[in-house]
Amino acid sequence: MEWKVENADWNFEEILKTLKKYVNRENKKVYGILLLILILLWAVSGLYIVGPGEQGVVRRFGRHVRTTTPGLRYRLPTPFEEHDVVDVATVRRTEIGYRTERADSVEEEALMLTGDENIVKVHLFVQYRVVDPASFLFQVEEPEVVLHTAAEVALRSIVGQNTIDYTMTEGRVEVQSRVQEYIQNLMDDYETGIVLLDARLLTVDPPDPVRDAFHEVVRAWEDRERLVQQAEGYKEDLLPRARGRARAMIFEAQGYQQRRLLMAEGDVSRFLQFAEEYEKAPEITRERLYLETMSEVLPQAERIIMPERISSGVLPFLPLDKESDNLQ
Question: What's the CATH number for 92-206?
Answer without folding.
Answer: 3.30.479.30
